[in-house]
Amino acid sequence: MDLLRKACVIWLKDLRLEWRTLDSISGMFFFSLLVLVIFNFTFDFTVVDFKDLGPGVLWVTFTFAGILALSHSFVIEKEGDCMQGLLLSPVDPGAIYLGKMLSNLTLILGVEIILVPLTSVLFNYPIWGKLPALAAVLGVSTLGFAGVGTLLGAMTARTRRGEVLLPLLLFSICIPIIIAAVQTTKVVMQGRPLGDAREWFIIGAAFDAIFVTAAYLTFEYVIEE
Amino acid sequence: MNGIKRALPVVLPMILFALVVKGLYGAFFEAPTEIQMGDVQRIFYFHAPAGIVAFLAFGVTGVASFLYLWRKSLIFDVVAYASAEVGLIFCTIVLVTGPLWARPVWGTWWTWEARLTTTLALWLIYASYILVRRYTDNRDQQARFAAVLGIVGALDVPIVYRSITWWRGLHPVVLKASGGGGLDPEMRSVFLFCIIVYLTLYACLMAVRIPIGCAEDEIAGLREILARRRRA
Amino acid sequence: MKENFIYLFGAYTFIWILLAVYLGVLMKKQRSIRREIDAIKARLGETSRGDR
Amino acid sequence: MAAEAAIEVRNLRRSFGPLPAVDGVDLVVRPGQFITIFGPNGAGKTTLLRLLCGLLKPTQGEIRLMGLSPLKNGREVKRRIGFIAHSPFLYGGLSARENLIFYARLYSLPGAAERASERLREVGLMTRADDPVRTFSRGMQQRLTIARALLHDPEVVFLDEPYTGLDQQASRMLRSLLDAIRGRGRTVLMVTHNLEEGLELSSRVAIMSRGRIVEDRPASDLTRVQLETLYAAKVEAWTS
Question: Where are the domains of chain B?
């Protein structure tokens, strides 16, 4: 499929650009680390068990770090008007969306992969046994978040005060996926079998399917002149 | 057609006024007093219908946004904007009367129960919808962005409602005048009547708000022509 | 039971105040726009393209 | 194919709100011609250019590039047009070679690496091929922009104010590159304020004002002075 190949070209370009400067990943990492440290001060984990508060801590950190990736993803296109370059090349807007969405997804997942073991160390909560289940949860939730986020990132990159509008829009629209993410993470962290969170997986998967498709179809109207 | 157009601005408010009075009368006198909560439960009649009509208003925004992207004529954009704004007003009604009702009955101002929380979530979505409109300068771009948000928002409503309902458990048991589950028949008829009242109110507000949207576009055009005339 | 009436009364007055304020804002905006349209049209000297 | 007009425009209109940016343009450009459109700011030159390459949708009128419509068969048209603007469409973080390889892949051209090096050699950037574009001077960026625009051997090349921000040396380099393009028989449509450069390069000259083409002449008819007086007259007509 030519569309997927073009999407991968854009995806690899973003990763190479990121690899060259690492400015997005480093920013996200230090920001997340800071948030984790602050959480450490705000909650007394000797009294409260991390198993209950863990999901909240993780997902607040991931979503705010995700915002950094999503807004930066379209700043690099604005320098040198590169978005116009993409629009002038024989590429469907959908392919541009998929390419950018995959690169955002990769960045956010990358930070999550670094953050989860670090959280387990900082809050001395053993997580090694639960990694595969957690990976599934992270995958489904981050896909929905990055899917909608890429569309909104592209939109707010072209409005005034985009840095305020992006989080406002993204968190309002992503309430279902955030609830589903926290609930599934809680089930995983409490060691209960994944089956308990079946309904939340359904919501997460439904959110992903609906919004990645909707974003794919409406992306052209967001980047059009 | 012209006769109706001239009569409308007089007749519609009168109909609305009559409906509102009938609705208020129903809520305060016709409906029996709820056994557990007493008279304060009567807030329900003008609280819950606002939520329903708000959902409907956001649905209209979603449809109008889709039509704008398909047909590209600004009238759909004006309708989408008007419906989102009126929907937001109804959401505000729900979000203020809800706590006013919860306080005497459950002792707390805010309860994270499903319908109220969903309304809050929608309020956030459509408040940011209006902010995006205000922060985009180019009119075509504003219309396109708003249309995309209108569709995404409308798609989000059912999922938000489903996820919050599962997260929080169902709406509290609200009305039991004379035993038995569900709505007391007398209360039900007043409740349905109040929905009609709010629907008429929605129609009136839209009938006022849409021409303003059109006028704003017209004036923007005239200002540009004037500026160009002065620059030349 | 009496003090509950404050909440009931408060809820209803809030609804109508909010609607009245909203309607008032709309009416005021409508008038000011209408006035400005006519002013600009007069200045442009063109006959208005048929009243909407 | 060659008999067909490279660019054919019938009664093209595009307005932003009530204001017509392009107000009824008719234009036919034969393959191999180099036409330059002059005009004051706000005359609609850039809007016309954006309409031709499919970035903007017209409110009315017909566009045919090599017999194809940019709206209906957009991808096919974009494969055969090049666009050089004053913004480079290049990623500062990537090196010159990586930028060209990225675009070559986007246009799904065979042998991306060889093609990129070949283009870099043409514009004389081989020595800086692997340095990030951020470190390039404005002149070097413009040369790389031309390399990018010609990567896929477009049949029609659009230029939007390519001379802005270029010093003497860079302008001369740009002129020689544009000469090379003309030499290869490509069709070129340039939009600029720079009367001198425009006249020298083009085989045909047009003046646009208030969204319409008010003058369209072969360049050989005009000397530099005549063009200036004609331009002043046409622009004056607009401002009085």
Answer: 21-27+34-231
Report pLDDT digits (tens) over D25-41: 999 998 888 999 988 88
Instruction: Kindly state whether C4 is in contact with chain B, defined as any CB-CB distance less than 8 angstroms.
Output: yes
pLDDT at B215 over 80: yes
For residue range D162-203, what is the model confidence (pLDDT) as tens digits? Answer: 888 777 877 887 888 888 888 888 899 999 887 887 888 888
D199 falls within a domain: yes
- State ipTM: 0.89
pTM for this prediction: 0.90
Give the chains touching B; criterion: ≥3 Cβ pairs < 8 Å: A, C, D
Query: What is d(CA A126, CA A150) in angstroms, rounded to the nearest whole number?
Result: 33
Q: Does D183 touch chain B (CB under 8 A)?
A: no
d(C-alpha A73, C-alpha A79), whole Å: 11
Distance CA B71, CA B68 (A): 5
Q: Which of D47, D31, D82 is nearest to D203 (CA)?
A: D31
Range of the domain at D51: 7-239
Residue A201 in contact with residue B163, Cβ under 8 Å?
no
Q: What is the CA radius of gyration of chain B?
A: 21
Residues of D in contact with A5 (CB under 8 A): 108
Distance of CA D75 to the CA centre of its chain: 18
Chain B residues whose beta carbon lies within 8 Å of the beta carbon of residue A206: 159
Residue-wise pLDDT for D92-135, tens only, equals 999 999 999 999 999 999 999 999 999 999 888 899 999 999 99
* CA–CA separation, A53 and A45 (whole Å): 9
Distance between CA A43 and CA A48 in Å, rounded?
7
d(CA D217, CA B110): 75
Give the strand pairing for D60-65 and D7-16: antiparallel
What CATH code is carried by the domain that includes residue D151? 3.40.50.300
> Cα–Cα distance between A210 and A188 in angstroms, integer?
25
Would D147 be classed as within a structural domain? yes
Better-scored residue on pLDDT, D109 or D1: D109
Question: Given CA atoms B205, B207, B211, B213 in this order, what sign does their dihedral have?
Answer: positive
